[in-house]
Amino acid sequence: MAVIEIGVSRCPLCGQVLTGISNIVATGHFLPFGPDRLWRCSDAAMHKSCFLAWEDREEFIALYNQVRSSQGRLDRMTEDGEIVVPGETEAEIKDRLRKRQHSYKWNERRARKEKRRIKDDTE
């Protein structure tokens, strides 16, 4: 999964800083490095609003699902950018989302600490 630092990481679609953990679409690395215009969004986090308005969204989703299927993975991306695993129970979904949110919050705290450290060093 993409490493996201709230307040530091930028959306590859609009270039603006990601400011919160809600309304983010993120994927792990699934495309090899290359000139492909979709590569920049592999292993990245995007604003959900940017993702939904993105002209290449349908192609990106289809490619994500095709690659993951060819790797024998069960997870799929829905039209709104959510990653789902067919057959996953409600408790498993909640646990996965809780872990993802915890990871985002941890990265957010780390980014705030780093900003304070930089500010202290410059004073």
Rg over CA atoms, rounded to whole Å, is 16 Å
Q: In DSSP terms, counting alpha (H) and pi (I) runs of 4 or more, how many helices?
A: 3
Beta-strand percent range: 5-15%
What integer is the average pLDDT?
80
What is the spatial order of strands in the main beta sheet?
Answer: 1-2
Shape: globular
Q: Uncertain spans, ≥5 residues at pLDDT below 50?
A: none
How many structural domains can be distinguished in the coordinates? 1
Task: Tally the beta strands.
Answer: 4
SSE-based structural type = mainly alpha
Produce a short descriptive summary.
This protein is mainly α. It has helices at 48-53, 57-70, 90-122, and strands at 24-26, 45-47, 76-77, 83-84. The protein has 3 helices and 4 strands.
Structure, explained:
The structure is a single chain. The chain has helices spanning 48-53, 57-70, 90-122, and strands spanning 24-26, 45-47, 76-77, 83-84. The protein is mainly α and 123 residues long. The protein has one domain. Strands 1-2 form a two-stranded antiparallel sheet. The protein has a two-stranded antiparallel ribbon with strand order 3-4. The mean pLDDT is 80.
